[in-house]
Amino acid sequence: MEIRKELLPSGQLKPLFEDLMKVEFGTNFTDYMFTMEYTREEGWKDPAITPYHPLVLDPATIMFHYSQAAFEGQKAYRSPKDEILLFRPAENARRMNRSMARMCIPEIPEDLFLQAECELLKLEKRWIPTQKGTSLYIRPTVIPTEVLLGAVRPSDNYLFYIILSPVGPFYKEGFNPIGLWVDKTYSRAASGGTGAAKTGGNYAGSIAATLMAKNKGYSQVLWLDAKEHRYVEEVGTMNVFFVIEGKLVTPPLTGTILPGITRKSLLEMAGDLGIETEERLISIDELAEGVDSGRVTEVFGAGTAAVISPVGRFHFDGKEYVVNNNETGYWAKKFFDTLTGIQYGESEDKYGWVYKVE
Ligand SMILES: Cc1ncc(COP(=O)(O)O)c(C=O)c1O
What distance in angstroms lies between residue 6's CA and the mean position of ligand 1's atoms? Predict the structure, then answer.
């Protein structure tokens, strides 16, 4: 599809940041955005790249009330050869469509999703930072735009947009271990719900517990399953991994956790790095006992925004558990180095995961 472009005079472009390591994640955006509309009669139409702008919507728009929306999270990296690199973007296009299908939103052809990202990134190349640990975060989003407070039903109209945010580390700790709060009061997602979709409601429902964790001095919540409050599921915006008796263990995709692309990649590369993997239920009791007995030697989160985030301690049922002396473990570092090496185009990509934007 032809993408219409509305460009700014160069004098009106925003200045770049001198040190992204000091900028809060996701608080600043580039000069342009991509937009595309959907109507029931015409389908997806009018793809355009225009200056970054606020959206003007009627207060009764479905978005504000019933949240029938979905989004994605990706990063663009600048390689040592000055190329723009994406990591497994087709996986994001597919997951976006899966989230949209769950929310009853008509799908976007994968090649159009990718074309939109590539054209926007080419125009915004100057925003892709070079320093390791920084990148240009990509947030494709789809929202319902029909005005309707009555029946709760799919919107007839949608807006799909992509915005870009130059970012440094997700956590203030950087690559140092974070602390997690394990709570039995709240749940993130229940069986049959929307936990496997990337949709705002999952995150809105997690704010109270996350706030509680933060007030107690922890970075995030380690979620347990909603039925028994027993099995470990995931962390705020990351999937979770454990090294148990030398094996890499992670909870299975049972429909309540987000099928992370970083998660999938770690499982796929683990064998080559020399560690066996296992996808199985892990109870919080097994984890607590395992940390005490030394069976569990590492805990870390994995996701696009945080990359690999070592977990140095967690609080459960009135007790503090310290993992690996609150230090970054061997496997967290190994996965971090291998993954970021591929993502930044510094090491060989034998899996064919890196996509060059041309
Ligand atoms: C709830 C949740 N789990 C896991 C992840 C990790 O997914 P990915 O590796 O695709 O970024 C994310 C981030 O997107 C997330 O929001």
Answer: 33
Residues with Cβ within 6 A of ligand 1?
A: 73, 234, 237-239, 258, 260-263, 303-304
pLDDT per residue as tens digits for the range 324-336: 999 999 999 999 9
* Rounded Cα–Cα distance for residues 292 and 283 (Å): 14
Scanning the chain, the segments in alpha helix (DSSP H) are 62-66, 89-102, 110-123, 200-204, 207-215, 261-273, 284-293, 330-343
Q: Is 69 helix (H, G, I), strand (E, B) or coil?
A: coil
Ligand 1, closest atom to CA 262? 9
Which residues in 262-292 are b (16+ Cβ under 10 Å) and which e?
bbebbbebbeeeebeeeeeebebebbbebbe
- For residues 208 and 186, the answer to whether their CB atoms sit within 8 Å is yes
Q: Using 50, 70 and 90 to split pLDDT, how confident is the model at 183?
A: confident
pTM over 0.85? The answer is yes
**pLDDT of the residue at 132:** 86
Instruction: Output the CA 169–ligand 1 centroid distance in Å.
Output: 15
Average of per-residue pLDDT across 28-42: 98
Domain boundaries of the chain, sorted by first residue: 4-167, 178-343
* CATH code of domain 4-167: 3.30.470.10
> Residue 185: how many CB atoms within 10 A of its CB?
8
CATH C-level class of 178-343 = alpha beta
Per-residue pLDDT at 14: 96
Q: Which of 206, 235, 237 to mutate to test the pocket of ligand 1 (most atoms within 8 A of CB)?
A: 237
Provide the b/e sequence for 334-351 (b: ≥16 CB within 10 Å).
bbbebbbebbbbeeeeee
Q: How many A from CA of 271 to the centre of ligand 1?
A: 22
Query: What are 26's two structure tokens?
Result: 């996701």
Q: Which of 139, 258, 267 to mutate to test the pocket of ligand 1 (most atoms within 8 A of CB)?
A: 258
Atom number, ligand 1, closest to the C-alpha of residue 258:
3
